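Q: What structure does this chain adopt?
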Amino acid sequence: MDRLDCIQSFVRVVEMGSFSAVAREYNTTQPTISKKIAALEDYLDVQLLTRSTTKLQLTQEGELFFERCQSLLDAAAETISSVGQRQNPVGTLRVNCSVAFGQYQVIPYLKGFLSRYPDLKLDLMMNDRFVDLVEEGIDVAIRIGEVNDSMLSVHQIGVTRRVTVAAGDYFRDCPEPKTPEDLVDRNCIVYSRLATANNWHFQLPTGGTTQVTVKGNLQVDGSTAIREAVLAGLGIAVCPV
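A:
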């Protein structure tokens, strides 16, 4: 027996004063509604309604039960409505992303976001290390690349690609590389948190890919530091765009 269903049927029968009217409302039959009320009475071991050919009347126990059930169902409906129709999120939202992505792609939009949701407090955690989302209580994480954890809910929000870059000052002392293989003899800035480390992958104009193992005198574990090193003319790096 679905007790909640029986209680709802009982309350509607009392409110409408008719088994048949409730049956029509629920798109079922009058005997089905009668059976639900009878099952509820059997479970409670008390008579809730007295029935005659002309009307229904609550017993003393039925009146008390009806009042409490009506209040309970009203409260449940109000709770469901308030949660389901909430327009303004409330509470603290913890977001994790890389330093560079947060600096250039998140922070510029925060004023509009927080103005739209004034009751929301944002806790933005920006770093380039691996973060255990569950252990550190992260609600939303923005990642570049594939996510292999099947326990996470993943949604693609955009597409990026990596390009090989260097400052013009760097090429004053050495020729500009023409092919990926030319990078072997150049000073490359290695991003130590890149999954492929110093093994850089390139798509060829003719199709397919190639891999080059690069080296250099600078290795960095921060994405913004890579950018500054490139602008300072220290070498060639691979960066997302």
